[in-house]
Design goal:
There is one protein chain. The chain is mainly beta. The longest helix is centred in the N-terminal third of the chain and has 7 residues. The chain has two domains: about 90 residues, Chitinase A, domain 3 (Roll); about 50 residues, Thrombin, subunit H, CATH 2.40.10. Strands 1, 2, 3, 4 and 9 form a five-stranded antiparallel beta sheet that branches. Strands 5-8-7-6 form a four-stranded antiparallel beta sheet, with no helix packed on it. The chain binds zinc ion. The site of zinc ion has 5 residues, from loops.
Protein backbone atom coordinates (compact mmCIF):
# COMPACT_ATOMS: atom_id res chain seq x y z
CA UNK A 1 0.00 0.00 0.00
CA UNK A 2 1.35 3.38 -1.01
CA UNK A 3 1.22 6.57 0.99
CA UNK A 4 -1.52 8.85 -0.28
CA UNK A 5 -3.85 11.29 1.45
CA UNK A 6 -5.88 9.77 4.29
CA UNK A 7 -3.42 6.95 4.97
CA UNK A 8 -2.04 6.41 8.44
CA UNK A 9 1.74 6.12 8.28
CA UNK A 10 4.14 4.75 10.85
CA UNK A 11 7.70 5.84 10.32
CA UNK A 12 11.08 5.89 11.96
CA UNK A 13 13.07 9.02 11.33
CA UNK A 14 16.30 10.74 12.15
CA UNK A 15 16.57 14.49 11.72
CA UNK A 16 19.99 16.05 11.31
CA UNK A 17 21.23 19.53 10.51
CA UNK A 18 23.69 20.26 7.70
CA UNK A 19 26.60 19.55 10.07
CA UNK A 20 25.26 16.06 10.79
CA UNK A 21 24.16 16.83 14.34
CA UNK A 22 21.13 14.78 15.34
CA UNK A 23 18.28 17.15 16.25
CA UNK A 24 15.58 14.55 16.76
CA UNK A 25 15.16 10.84 16.22
CA UNK A 26 12.63 8.08 16.85
CA UNK A 27 15.45 5.63 17.58
CA UNK A 28 14.67 3.57 20.65
CA UNK A 29 11.08 4.77 20.63
CA UNK A 30 7.83 3.73 19.00
CA UNK A 31 7.63 4.84 15.37
CA UNK A 32 5.93 8.16 14.73
CA UNK A 33 2.33 7.80 13.50
CA UNK A 34 0.67 10.51 11.46
CA UNK A 35 -2.19 11.05 9.04
CA UNK A 36 -1.02 11.85 5.51
CA UNK A 37 -2.63 14.97 4.08
CA UNK A 38 -3.73 16.40 7.43
CA UNK A 39 -0.76 18.67 8.05
CA UNK A 40 0.38 16.59 11.04
CA UNK A 41 4.00 16.86 9.87
CA UNK A 42 5.87 19.67 8.11
CA UNK A 43 4.76 20.23 4.49
CA UNK A 44 8.12 19.47 2.86
CA UNK A 45 8.33 16.07 4.52
CA UNK A 46 4.69 15.20 3.96
CA UNK A 47 5.09 15.92 0.23
CA UNK A 48 8.12 13.60 -0.03
CA UNK A 49 6.30 10.79 1.82
CA UNK A 50 3.71 10.65 -0.97
CA UNK A 51 3.91 7.40 -2.96
CA UNK A 52 6.28 5.61 -0.58
CA UNK A 53 5.43 2.19 0.87
CA UNK A 54 6.21 0.11 3.96
CA UNK A 55 9.88 -0.92 3.98
CA UNK A 56 11.05 2.10 1.96
CA UNK A 57 14.09 3.88 3.31
CA UNK A 58 15.04 7.24 1.90
CA UNK A 59 16.51 10.65 2.61
CA UNK A 60 14.31 13.73 2.49
CA UNK A 61 15.85 17.18 2.48
CA UNK A 62 13.47 19.96 3.48
CA UNK A 63 14.25 23.63 2.89
CA UNK A 64 13.22 26.14 5.59
CA UNK A 65 10.26 27.47 3.58
CA UNK A 66 8.67 24.00 3.66
CA UNK A 67 9.92 23.25 7.16
CA UNK A 68 9.69 25.60 10.13
CA UNK A 69 9.89 28.77 8.07
CA UNK A 70 12.61 31.25 7.24
CA UNK A 71 14.31 32.99 10.12
CA UNK A 72 12.36 36.22 10.65
CA UNK A 73 14.20 39.14 12.27
CA UNK A 74 10.87 40.84 12.97
CA UNK A 75 10.07 38.07 15.44
CA UNK A 76 12.73 39.47 17.75
CA UNK A 77 11.25 41.70 20.39
CA UNK A 78 12.84 43.78 23.14
CA UNK A 79 10.97 43.83 26.44
CA UNK A 80 11.86 45.36 29.80
CA UNK A 81 13.34 43.04 32.38
CA UNK A 82 10.77 44.36 34.83
CA UNK A 83 8.08 42.65 32.73
CA UNK A 84 9.15 39.25 34.00
CA UNK A 85 6.86 38.13 36.74
CA UNK A 86 7.67 37.07 40.23
CA UNK A 87 11.20 36.17 41.19
CA UNK A 88 12.10 34.64 37.81
CA UNK A 89 15.52 35.87 36.75
CA UNK A 90 15.74 35.89 32.93
CA UNK A 91 18.74 34.10 31.44
CA UNK A 92 19.94 33.73 27.85
CA UNK A 93 18.57 30.54 26.28
CA UNK A 94 15.64 30.32 28.68
CA UNK A 95 12.26 29.46 27.13
CA UNK A 96 9.40 31.71 28.17
CA UNK A 97 5.71 31.91 27.33
CA UNK A 98 4.64 35.18 25.78
CA UNK A 99 1.24 36.50 24.80
CA UNK A 100 0.86 37.85 21.28
CA UNK A 101 -2.11 39.00 19.22
CA UNK A 102 -2.25 35.46 17.78
CA UNK A 103 -2.28 33.84 21.20
CA UNK A 104 0.38 32.38 23.44
CA UNK A 105 3.70 31.33 21.98
CA UNK A 106 7.05 30.13 23.23
CA UNK A 107 10.01 32.47 22.89
CA UNK A 108 13.60 32.02 23.86
CA UNK A 109 15.68 34.72 25.46
CA UNK A 110 18.30 35.70 22.89
CA UNK A 111 20.05 38.58 24.65
CA UNK A 112 20.03 40.50 27.91
CA UNK A 113 21.50 43.99 28.07
CA UNK A 114 20.94 45.93 31.26
CA UNK A 115 17.20 46.21 31.70
CA UNK A 116 16.47 45.12 28.12
CA UNK A 117 15.66 41.52 27.31
CA UNK A 118 15.53 40.41 23.66
CA UNK A 119 13.02 37.65 22.95
CA UNK A 120 13.24 35.46 19.85
CA UNK A 121 9.86 34.09 18.80
CA UNK A 122 11.15 32.14 15.80
CA UNK A 123 10.72 28.38 15.95
CA UNK A 124 14.04 26.90 17.16
CA UNK A 125 14.40 25.17 13.76
CA UNK A 126 13.45 28.24 11.69
CA UNK A 127 15.87 29.00 8.87
CA UNK A 128 17.36 25.52 9.06
CA UNK A 129 17.59 22.96 6.26
CA UNK A 130 16.30 19.69 7.65
CA UNK A 131 17.79 16.35 6.62
CA UNK A 132 15.55 13.40 7.37
CA UNK A 133 16.48 9.73 7.18
CA UNK A 134 13.12 8.03 6.90
CA UNK A 135 12.06 4.41 7.16
CA UNK A 136 8.41 3.68 6.43
CA UNK A 137 7.25 1.02 8.89
CA UNK A 138 3.57 0.66 8.06
CA UNK A 139 0.86 2.19 5.89
CA UNK A 140 -2.85 1.60 6.48
CA UNK A 141 -6.20 3.21 5.74
CA UNK A 142 -7.37 5.74 8.30
CA UNK A 143 -10.63 5.06 10.13
CA UNK A 144 -13.64 7.35 9.70
CA UNK A 145 -13.02 8.66 13.19
CA UNK A 146 -9.39 9.45 12.50
CA UNK A 147 -10.33 11.30 9.33
CA UNK A 148 -12.96 13.29 11.24
CA UNK A 149 -10.45 14.22 13.94
CA UNK A 150 -7.54 14.82 11.55
CA UNK A 151 -5.10 12.72 13.56
CA UNK A 152 -4.15 9.13 14.34
CA UNK A 153 -5.64 7.13 17.19
CA UNK A 154 -4.10 4.22 19.06
CA UNK A 155 -0.40 3.38 19.48
CA UNK A 156 1.79 6.35 18.62
CA UNK A 157 -1.25 8.59 18.21
CA UNK A 158 -3.92 10.23 20.31
CA UNK A 159 -5.35 8.24 23.20
CA UNK A 160 -8.84 9.52 23.83
ZN1 LIG B 1 -9.07 12.01 17.89
Amino acid sequence: MQITNNKVVQMHYKLTDDQGNVIDSSEGREPLSYLQGAGNIIPGLERQMEGKAAGDKFKAVVEPAEGYGEYDESLMQVVPKSGFQGDMEPEVGMQVQVGTQQGTTIASIAKIEGEEVTLDMNHPLAGMRLNFDVEVVDVRDATEEELAHGHVHGPGGHEH
